[in-house]
Amino acid sequence: xxxxxxxITAVLVVLLLLAxxxxxxxxxxxxxxxxxxxxxxxxxxxNWDKFSQRVDVKGMSESAFDDLIDVAMEKDKTMDSGTxxxxxxxxxxxxxxxxxxxxxxxxxxxxxxxxDKPKADAGKNGDKDKVGEQAADNLLxxxxxxxxxxxxxxxxxxxxxxxxxxxxxxxxxxxxxxELKLSMSRLEDGTWKIKRISNLKDFMQAVIEAEExxxxxxxxxxxxxxxxAVKIGAISGQVQQKDSYGFSHRLQLSSDLELSxxxxxxxxxxxxxxxxxxxxxxxxxxxxxxxxVASGKSKMNLSKDLNMFMDDELIKSRGQGYKYEATVMSIxxxxxxxxxxxxxxxx
Length: 347
Hints:
The protein is of the alpha+beta class. 40% of the residues lie in helices and 33% in strands.
């Protein structure tokens, strides 16, 4: 699937929630369900005016962007709280360009039934097009759009001029069903308009947790093999100054390493969880060269350059009070083979 097809799929899942598949359930003319049928028809008819009358594309794009950024920040293990604050601020700077690109893609798809690839001579707008495509790809990955199917309207609750329609969504890769809730508002003609996905954060968190559980299940025998071949002892950490002026620093980590592999190892890779005295954790990826040793004991020394802004707290502490825990995720052998834990679910 190329990037344009990904954009189409991602946008439709996030904004329409597979509305094109729910026609058989929509028959009450004054009900929220009937308005979903009208949305379905507008896509088939390529009628943008009819579509935009009942889908708040701008509002849905903006709220979905905020929800997905929140979930990403909460789940990202590579950043501490300070870095996440900076990253969230940067994401908000990109928000107008990203949501604008999504809105344009939705309009183009409704009107044409497809989204054209950007021209090679897009000129000064080329970068913006690129941002939009990348944003759509990211949305696709975060929503797992390509893996879900609509299973039906589960409920419709109306409270005055506000309605919540609950849709059943099945993730085929995970083999689990989830719920998505559409928040809708009544229009003057009695029909309804989709305003946002009210439980998008809960939906995303539930999908991520289910995916993590499935990954852990698939990785269990691989982890057992890695743990049997490599044992990393307690890790000590110290912040060291890299220059005489004190502007640059590195985190120096040291531990005992014991190999019990069946054949010579070239390198081991994985993650080190760094936990500060407050209990906040971040993850550092590492690769350590072993150079053809199959078994034996040695010292493992790792070094990570620190950022004077993002790692300010760690630098000031000199590493005191911090805890470090290593996980082995990959072993590369001298014969070219590799034992590696899965990072994503297989297709």
